[in-house]
Amino acid sequence: MANCQDELTSVDLASAAPSTLSLSAAQTSSTVSLFPFIHHAQSTGLNLTDPTFLPRVLRPLDTKDVVKTNDELSSDDISLGSSSGNWIGGCIDSQQGDDEMILHVQFTGLVRLKSILIGTGGGQHPASPRLVKVWANRAEMLGFGDTDDVKEDQAWELLEATDGGRGSVEYPVRVTRFANVSSVDLFFANTRSGEQSRLYYLGFMGESRVLKKEPGEPMTVGAENAVQKQIDGVKESARGAHAVK
């Protein structure tokens, strides 16, 4: 397939500052790439020509604008990616004759997801998907029969480049729906050809939700967890009062 082009779209996210949790992603409250928190061994896809190629698109942030097919990867690229898991390019394709594919991405711990970066190779190629639906924290991996029956947490019509750009596009998520995420399922479809989908990059931006105790500091609890602790405390007190009677 011929290469297409895309444009990186920057999105300013207006999100509330994190609570008193100390975030391990960058030991700050800043938004970072969640690539280090992807559990590659438990991430997979449905209807892919080769599911083992998924790490070729779940890549570090500095490769978000790379548009290379698997055939365009050098032997050194393949050797490095296979040994280290840090691929510098590549793509995944749906099965020929079917442009739908589902990706399940598992994280090593809870994360607060703020945006998703998607590289379709320009959005104008016949194999560029034009629709994505996203679900968070599914108890079981999504199936194709669920994509219409189960309401997604968010969906986008994917953008097309108009000025020859080639990078990924960043799509902001509804932070309240993706505040404590352990996994996401993504459904891609609706290409021009209807025959096959191709994806060049998939990345996630946000924060780790893993508690991190700094030396000499007490463990702190996030605002939403603190509220729950207060509720639980009231319930426990009520139980104690009832027991005394």
Q: Can you characterise this structure?
A:
The chain has 245 residues and is an alpha+beta fold. It is 15% helix and 24% strand. The chain is built from 3 helices and 10 strands; from the N terminus they run ββαβββαβββββα. It has helices spanning 75-84, 146-149, 223-244, and strands spanning 32-33, 44-46, 92-93, 101-119, 131-136, 154-157, 169-172, 181-189, 198-199, 201-208. Strands 1, 2, 4, 5, 6, 7, 8 and 10 form an 8-stranded antiparallel β-sheet that branches. The protein has a two-stranded antiparallel ribbon with strand order 3-9. The longest helix has 22 residues, at 223-244. The chain starts with 31 loop residues before the first strand and ends with a helix. 33% of the residues are buried.
Short description:
This protein is α+β, with helices and mostly antiparallel strands. The chain has 3 helices and 10 strands.
Task: Give the helices and strands, then pairings.
Layout: E1 32-33, E2 44-46, H1 75-84, E3 92-93, E4 101-119, E5 131-136, H2 146-149, E6 154-157, E7 169-172, E8 181-189, E9 198-199, E10 201-208, H3 223-244
Antiparallel strand pairs: 1-10, 2-4, 3-9, 4-7, 4-8, 4-10, 5-6, 5-8
Question: By helix and strand content, what is the structural category?
Answer: alpha+beta
Mean pLDDT: 80
Give start-end ranges of low-pLDDT stretches.
1-28, 220-245
> What spatial form do the alpha-carbon principal axes imply?
globular
Number of helices: 3
How much of the sequence is in beta strands? 15-25%
Strand-and-helix sequence, N→C?
EEHEEEHEEEEEH
Question: What is the helical fraction, as a range of percent?
Answer: 10-25%
What gap, in angstroms, lies between the N and C termini? 77 Å
Strand element count: 10
Quaternary organization: single chain
Main sheet overview:
8 strands, antiparallel
**What's the alpha carbon Rg, rounded to whole Å?**
20 Å
